[in-house]
Specification:
Layout lengths: L5 H11 E4 L5 E6 L14 E9 L7 E12 L10 E6 L1 E10 L4 E6 L3 E6 L18 E2 L9 E2 L16 E8 L2 E2 L5 E3 L1 E8 L2 E9 L15 E5 L6 E11 L20 E2 L5 E9 L2 E10 L4 E6 L4 E12 L1 H4 L6 E10 L7 E3 L17 E7 L5 E7 L2 E9 L5 E8 L6 E8 L2 E5 L2 E4 L4 E5 L8 E5 L2 E7 L3 E7 L1
Parallel strand pairs: 19-23
Antiparallel strand pairs: 1-2, 2-17, 3-4, 4-17, 5-16, 6-11, 6-17, 7-8, 7-16, 9-10, 11-14, 12-13, 14-15, 18-22, 19-20, 20-21, 21-22, 22-23, 24-29, 25-26, 26-27, 27-28, 28-35, 29-34, 30-31, 31-32, 32-35, 33-34
Length: 477
């Protein structure tokens, strides 16, 4: 087991993890992250925290609070920063949340040798092997400049979230195989990588260690390694499934393919498609999905005047709608953030604590379609409470998200706009709010003039704002 013995592995598991199953076959492991005792000689750039955050405008800086459950790396000037090693493994399934600071760079090295890149490549339109979720390239200094890097694998699309937001990654790894003489007989493989719900890699053979390995050899068992000397990063909810016996074959560990060839719609230009859209168990029957060449997309519910989801990456998978008889629905083809069961965006309340209406009954709501600007971007129109509403949504500069401009002809006394509803809403800075345990941001313009309200509602939090005439805010993700 290289320099990491079976005794070290067992001690690691007993010290810090909750384990079910037999290590001789398959062990499921959850790291509680109560202290740094399970890691191999952690340097002072690593910390255990209760919570962590990053500012969208501050590079290479994470801020954390005391507690347990989060592993934080914050390299400091003058402090020798090191990677952190733990959990020697053969075949491995790894699942965790991670957060990047603005401009940060890190990585996950399987067996200390094969890197899945972690990078703040949030605003990139195209992807390279060195971008977030990529399989980093190998390196040969003897080759000419421009050819030293080779055999890297770019992610299929950019599914990256903004700095300061939690991202979720799943990695399935097959270790290299060796015969009884120690000769390698089969290369390592990345069986699958999913980032924020999007498949990035599938059954990728690794001809050797990627650049910057712990050791430039290959072994049956090596430690999991988080890169700590490049930039700030935080981890939580680390779940591992270790295999004492080899997995049966690559094909057996890849999700079965749907025999139907998918029908994808690209958004090389500003693109609009009307379809049914399923949000959890609820079907939106008058959904309009709006795609952009920047690959930042959203779906609008014309029955309620609300955005029901946003996503980054591919536009739409229209297979459910167009294959065979079809069912009339499409689904996002990228990394999607859904906003729950749709409700009206605008409501007249008797007071800031009054319940938000579940539907538009009694509001006089009438959709009036949409108008396209010269670039084919829609402004949605509807009538509610005997006043006209214009709802224009634009992709933000730098692909940061969706900027929403709402113009209300004659606002009604007591009218509010619902910006968000989630289990958790917290103020990040003046006018900027973190929604749903750091899943996305809401940024309100002129928060001093019109101040949003965070309120309790049926066990959830709502972010609402009183309406004057015009309202501008952004959904950043």
């Amino acid at each position: 087991m290289n320099s990491y013995s079976k005794t070290k592995l067992l001690r690691t598991i007993i010290l810090c993890i909750m384990i079910t199953g037999a290590i001789s076959s398959r062990a499921q492991v959850y790291m509680t992250l109560k202290d740094l005792g399970v890691f191999e000689s952690p340097s002072s750039n690593w910390h255990i925290a209760g919570d962590v955050s990053a500012d969208l405008n501050t590079a290479n800086r994470l801020v954390w609070t005391s507690g347990t459950g989060v592993l934080v790396n914050q390299p400091e000037q003058g402090v020798q920063a090191h990677d952190i090693l733990f959990f020697p493994h053969n075949d491995l399934d790894l699942e965790l949340d991670y957060m990047m600071a603005k401009g940060s760079n890190s990585g996950i090295y399987l067996q200390g040798r094969y890197e899945i890149q972690l990078l703040d490549s949030w605003t990139n339109l195209t992807t390279k092997a060195g971008d977030n979720g990529g399989i980093y390239e190998r390196w040969n200094d003897s080759k000419p400049d421009g050819q030293k890097g080779f055999d890297g694998h770019a992610p299929r699309q950019n599914a990256t979230r903004a700095p300061g937001l939690w991202q979720h990654i799943k990695i399935s790894f097959q270790a290299p195989r060796f015969n009884e003489s120690g000769q390698k007989i089969e290369n390592a493989r990345i069986l699958r990588v999913e980032l924020n719900g999007v498949l990035l890699h599938e059954n990728v053979e690794l001809s050797g260690p990627t650049r910057g390995p712990l050791v430039n050899d290959e072994v049956a068992t090596g430690p999991l390694r988080f890169q700590g000397d490049h930039g700030p990063v935080a981890f939580r909810n680390i779940r591992l499934t270790a295999y004492g016996k080899p997995k049966s074959s690559p094909a057996a560990n890849i999700t079965a393919r749907d025999p139907i060839d998918p029908i994808f719609i690209n958004s090389n230009n500003n693109t609009i498609l009307r379809s049914f859209m399923d949000i959890d168990t609820f079907r939106v029957t008058h959904a309009v999905s709006v795609g952009s060449p920047q690959q930042v997309q959203y779906t609008y519910d014309m029955d309620r005047g609300s955005i029901i989801q946003v996503w980054r990456g591919g536009f739409l998978d229209a297979t459910p709608m167009w294959h065979s008889r079809g069912d009339g629905s499409s689904r996002p083809a990228g990394s999607v953030i859904r906003f729950g069961k749709p409700v009206p965006s605008l409501a007249v309340l008797s007071g800031p604590d009054a319940p938000w209406p579940k539907d538009s009954v009694g509001t006089g709501y009438r959709p009036k379609g949409y108008r396209l600007d010269p670039d084919d971007r829609p402004t949605f129109l509807y009538q509610v409470y005997n006043t006209m509403v214009k709802d224009k949504n634009l992709v933000m500069d730098g692909r940061q998200g969706i900027h929403r401009e709402i113009e209300i002809d004659k606002p009604v006394v007591g009218m509010f706009f619902r910006l968000a509803e989630a289990d958790k809403i917290e103020l990040a800075s003046d006018g900027t709010y973190l929604i749903d345990d750091k899943t996305y941001y809401i940024r309100v313009e002129d928060p001093v003039v019109i101040k949003p309200v965070i309120r309790d509602s049926n066990g959830h939090k709502q972010l609402i704002i009183p309406v004057q005439k015009n309202l501008s805010y952004s959904i950043i993700f």
